Amino acid sequence: MIRDAYAVRTGVGPRPLAGGRLPRPVIEVIERDDGLINGAPADHYLDEPDAWQPHDHRALKYCRGRVLDIGAGAGRTALELQRRGVAVTGLDTSQGAIEVARRRGLRDTVLATVDEFARAPVRYDTFLLLGNNLGLLESPERAPVFLDALARLAAPGAQIVAQGTDPYGTRDPVHVAYHERNRARGRLGGQLRLRLRYREVATGWFDYLNCSAAELEALVAGTAWRLKSIDERDRPYYLAVMELTH
Fold first, then answer.
1. 205-223 in b/e burial notation, b at 16+ Cβ within 10 A?
2. How far, CA to CA in Å, does 35 sit from each of 161, 182, 183, 194?
């Protein structure tokens, strides 16, 4: 999908065509386990800073030392940090995304999960989880495992800068019913079960977490991290900063 979005934007390489001639919009299809289907243009993975949301710009101000951009995608954030002279590594599980990031100029990339990479000898001062990638905490069961993996990669005094979404301000009956359904099943209200589709391919089903600041604080409790601050100026989106305690 990201390869196609890059080809459509640049005009270089094979592109999906409509009617055999015109470039077809590249749409990411998001399917939820209650049957809800949404779609979003995949071109946003390639956005330059002038198209970013305000919270993305504020997040970069927190970056210090060596940075690991987790879920780097096409390198949107990592490339800007690299332009600023920051030592940044882009990590993603998608080989195609990493290929596009490298074609766009990102020098240091890793194709791996966080758990796999946690065995590496390198240490980082800042971990970035932007583009709503706080969702990679997945669930109350998975969150401490994920945070422990980051702690193994952390330099003393390291921090996590993550963008999340509080799902509970909505009045949309479809989403409110989903939150209630989740809670009835012993899950957090905003604990999504998703798969992504593009053309003829689909991911497996996976959990992706939207949570409130209070829920995040509870998830972090008992780990090597503590919640230091929450920036809610772009509600329902927020920036969470967590710092290593030991």
1. eebbbbbbbebbeebbeeb
2. 32, 14, 18, 10
Residue 184 located in a structural domain: yes
Q: Is residue 15 included in any domain, yes or no?
A: no
**Helix 54-61 crosses helix 76-83 at what angle (to 10 degrees)?**
50
Rounded to whole angstroms, how far apart are CA atoms 244 and 224? 6
CB 71 within 8 A of CB 105: no
The answer to whether 24 and 198 have CB atoms below 8 angstroms apart is no
- The domain that contains 147 carries what CATH number? 3.40.50.150
> What is the rounded CA–CA span in Å between residue 137 and residue 160?
12
What's the structural domain count of the chain? 1
Mean pLDDT of 111-131: 97
Would you say residue 178 lies in a domain? yes
pLDDT at 226 over 90: yes
Cα–Cα distances in angstroms (integers) from residue 12 to residues 8, 28, 58, 140, 217, in the given order: 7, 20, 33, 43, 45
Between CA 192 and CA 178 the distance in angstroms is 9
**pLDDT the model gives residue 24:** 78
- pLDDT, one tens digit per residue, over 139-166 is 999 999 999 999 999 999 999 999 999 9
